[in-house]
Specification:
alpha+beta, four-stranded antiparallel sheet, about 45% helix, about 25% strand
């Protein structure tokens, strides 16, 4: 079992602070809109704030910890863990951003409450290894995709 953890100071700034500011905006923007202060703009900002709060605190789209063991992968934050057993994963899609050290992972199609995760591997313990392992999981799960073909062609294997 290997545990990859968001470095605490980066998690505090990139996830906690962003979530707190969004929560504040979610309170202030509707009040400003109802009082007549730029109601259209405030409504748009409130919707964006709601989406950020939902992703941060409800859907745990920015997990603090990723645990990979031979038979499962788990994403955790805020006292909640989404664990996926290897035999029960039907789809594992990854969109990589290697130069930024980020990746967007969708497990079993993703949904409103679970299955969508942004991993900031550049600020996680052993982030390069995590990045490779997640990419390898997608490759193993979907070997017949165009992306897998390109990987085989570029690696010479």
């Amino acid at each position: 079992m290997t545990r990859y953890t968001y470095i605490k100071r980066y998690f505090a700034i990139e996830v906690v602070l962003t979530g707190a500011i969004s929560t504040g905006a979610l309170v202030v923007c509707p009040l400003a809109a109802f009082s007549g202060f730029l109601p259209g703009v405030m409504t748009v900002l409130a919707v964006a704030a709601f989406y950020q709060v939902w992703n941060t605190f409800i859907a745990i789209a920015n997990p603090e910890t990723v645990v990979i063991d031979g038979g499962a992968i788990a994403f955790s934050a805020w006292g909640r863990t989404d664990r996926y057993e290897a035999g029960k994963i039907t789809e594992f899609r990854v969109r990589e951003f290697p130069t930024a050290g980020k990746m967007y992972v969708r497990v079993n199609g993703g949904g409103l409450l679970r299955g969508r995760y942004w991993l900031q591997t550049r600020v996680m313990t052993d982030g390069d290894e995590l990045f490779r392992r997640i990419c390898d999981m997608e490759y193993a799960m979907h070997p017949d995709t165009l992306k897998a073909y390109a990987r085989r062609s570029n690696s010479g294997s």
